[in-house]
Automatic annotation (TrEMBL):
Family: Belongs to the multi antimicrobial extrusion (MATE) (TC 2.A.66.1) family.
Keyword annotations of the record: Cell membrane, Membrane, Transmembrane, Transmembrane helix, Transport
Entry GO terms, CC: plasma membrane
Species this protein is from: Catenuloplanes atrovinosus
PANTHER family reported for this sequence: PROTEIN DETOXIFICATION 44, CHLOROPLASTIC (PTHR42893:SF46), PROTEIN DETOXIFICATION 44, CHLOROPLASTIC-RELATED (PTHR42893)
Record flagged with keyword RNA-binding: no
Protein name (record): MATE family efflux protein
CDD domains hit by this protein: MATE_DinF_like
Subcellular location(s) per record: Cell membrane
Membrane-spanning intervals of the chain: 16-36, 48-71, 96-116, 136-155, 167-186, 192-215, 238-259, 271-299, 311-337, 349-367, 379-402, 408-426
């Protein structure tokens, strides 16, 4: 194929943007709220901010389960949508919503029992930070069913390339919560508990709105064991992949906590900014999931491969842009979250690693979306396990053993990212990932 023909067959950037930009707003809404929450709680003092760091890390487990569900649902829905069966694509969302509801209730039960032990383990003992974190967790986890229903709703809507409804739902719910958080924390006098209550209101409200959107589709709401089992099989590999991620984040928080409250608070600021950047970069990956899945569902393997290359380059450009912005704000941004000088000093240790990784992360997240949209989840599972067990986890605990501080913690994250980048680029050059058909 000539260069002119290849260029003509590329998906127009405006088409990618029409999916990525609304997804960007949806993805950014939650981390922006978390950043607001962090800023509000940060002015209560070092202990509440560190407690929020621990509680937020545990609650990221529920967010991870939701991400697994959304990704699996998007890929399956997109293939059916690409094959011309929109009704079947929406019905994938029905089955995902049943899984979401049951999963959210299970998370509530588990966290109510284990909040104390988890907080003490991450804080390094029965400290005031651990007690505050456990109290925050027992309230915040009540929003888990809503959080999971939001993920299921986003999954099937992305699969059918619907962008307006999820955008409106998420923005409205998070605006309400962003207003409530400072009001409940300060004028209402609820302190750290007010932060947790605002989280619950946002998550349950969003989940109810996504459920209402599904009801308006007028498809069968009956749970189907076969379809649910098929989603669980797809989700299995993503679940294992996500477990490797969670082991890394929990280990990083645990090691950071052992360097003191200032180090843990600085890590909370940096990791939340990392999650914010990563999720915003993931908007490109979501466009890839939808477009690649639809192309393969329609039997257009060459288009899927062209999309893979395009999306990777867009991810790189996005990561560079983030690096420039956060690099310029290295001495200003931490001050938005706390006035504690010790926390500022620790944040400056993290910042060079944070900035250097962003361009690489842009490519990694973009290509993750390509592979997930293609349904190449077994490869994603294996790659992430190797990166975690062979890179991040050994690095993080060597850091603790050698007392290398927060810089060592983030060097482990750098190794994790590099291993994934090399594996994804190698996979993209093969044809093993681009299997056509309504299902993989």
């Amino acid at each position: 194929m000539s260069n002119d023909t290849a260029a003509a067959d590329r998906v127009p950037l405006r088409r990618i943007a029409s999916l990525a930009l609304p997804a960007l707003v949806v993805l950014a809404a939650e981390p922006i709220y978390v950043l607001v929450d962090t800023a509000v709680v940060g002015h209560l003092g070092r202990v509440p901010l560190a407690a929020l760091g621990i509680g937020g890390t545990v609650m990221s487990f529920a967010a991870w389960l939701g991400t697994v569900m959304a990704y699996g649902t998007t890929g399956r829905s997109a293939r059916r949508y690409g094959a011309g069966d929109r009704r079947a694509a929406v019905e994938e969302g029905v089955q995902a919503s049943w899984l979401a509801l049951l999963g959210g209730l299970a998370i509530i039960a588990v966290v109510q029992v284990l909040a104390g032990p988890l907080a003490r383990a991450l804080a390094g003992g029965p400290t005031p930070v651990a007690q505050a974190a456990a109290e925050w967790l027992r309230i915040a986890v009540l929003g888990a069913p809503g959080l999971m229903l939001v993920a299921a709703g986003n999954g099937w809507m992305r699969g059918v390339q619907e962008t307006r409804r999820p955008l409106a739902i998420v923005v409205v719910a998070n605006l309400v919560s962003a207003v409530l958080c400072p009001l409940l924390v300060y004028p209402a006098g609820l302190g750290l508990h007010g932060s947790a209550i605002a989280n619950v209101i946002a998550q349950l409200g969003s989940g109810a709105l996504f459920t209402a959107a599904l009801l308006r589709e007028r498809v069968s709401l009956r749970p189907r064991a076969g379809d649910i089992l098929a989603q669980l099989v797809v989700g299995r590999d993503l679940l294992i992949r996500g477990a490797a991620f969670q082991a890394c984040w929990l280990s990083a928080t645990s090691v950071a906590a052992r360097y003191g409250d200032a180090a843990l608070a600085a890590h909370q600021i940096a990791i939340q900014l990392w999650f914010f950047a990563a999720l915003v970069l993931d908007a490109v990956a979501i466009a890839a999931q939808s477009l690649v899945g639809a192309a393969l569902g329609a039997g257009d393997e060459p288009q899927a491969r062209r999309l893979g290359r395009q999306i990777g380059l867009i991810g790189l450009a996005s990561g560079v842009a983030f690096a420039v912005v956060f690099g310029a704000g290295a001495r200003v941004i931490p001050a938005l979250f706390t006035r504690d000088g010790a926390v500022h000093d620790q944040a400056l240790v993290v910042w060079p690693w944070f900035i250097a990784l962003l361009p690489l992360v842009g490519v990694v997240y973009a290509l993750d979306g390509v592979m997930i949209g293609a349904g190449d989840v077994a490869f994603m599972r294996n790659m992430t396990i190797v990166a975690a067990l062979g890179g991040f986890l050994p690095g993080i605990w060597v850091t603790y053993a050698l007392d290398l501080g927060l810089g060592g913690v983030w060097s482990g994250l750098a190794l994790f990212t590099m291993i994934r980048l090399v594996a994804l680029l190698a996979r993209l050059r093969t044809s093993a990932w681009s299997v056509v058909g309504a299902t993989r």
